[in-house]
Amino acid sequence: SLGVYAADNDNKEEAITMFNQCTKYDSENINAHLKKGNCYYRLHRITEAMECYDCVINLDNEHSLAYFNKGNCFKELNQHENAIKMYDKSLSLFPRDPVCLLNKALCLNYIANQSEALISLDKSIELKQNYKAHYLKGAIMMELHKREKAIISFNRTIELKNDFVGAYFKKGICLFELKRKEDSIEMFNKAIELNSTENIAKQISILSS
Question: Are the CB atoms for 120 and 105 separated by under 8 Å?
């Protein structure tokens, strides 16, 4: 449709107008409600996006994507417990969704439920290798002072995305804390090579002093 074409070409406001016309004449058009919600979400109009996803759910209460998208809205609003409820509902309908499992893990980690976050991450990684999932797992292991396990996760992150500064930097911190100073300096130098911002260089100089 023209609305889909406009949305795909970053004309989100025009797409919303077209989807509004579509739902005006067909109030039960699930696809139009869903895509309109996606447009609102990308415009950071989160409340309006949620209203669209609620319309989808009212029309089809087993629409896993609508629950997933509503979970993302709650996450954007920092309502992490509500987001987790939506992700769980989505996963009850479509369990093999690695992105939903990753987003759930992000929210679980935010509310300091690292054990459940790790379970969700492992399920996500089993379904799809994703550098973000490995990086979050490494960051959680680091918080739990499991530095060797954190390094394994950061290594996997780097294998999947070798220009990811954060993985080199956090791996460097783990190595530094394990008294492997030369190895840590190598990681810090790589982080600076990829991103020579003053902030990173300052953090590294404090650690290395």
Answer: yes
pLDDT tens readout for residues 53-97: 999 999 999 999 999 999 999 999 999 999 999 999 999 999 999
Sign, CA torsion 11/14/16/19: negative
| Residues 33, 52 contacting (CB under 8 angstroms) | yes
Burial 147-186 (b: 16+ CB within 10 A, else e): bebbbbbbebbbebeeebebbbbbbbbbbbeeebeebbbe
- pLDDT of res. 149: 98
Residue among 122, 83, 118, 119 at smallest CA distance from 103: 83
Tokens for 106?
Answer: 């992000």
How many residues appear in the chain?
Answer: 209
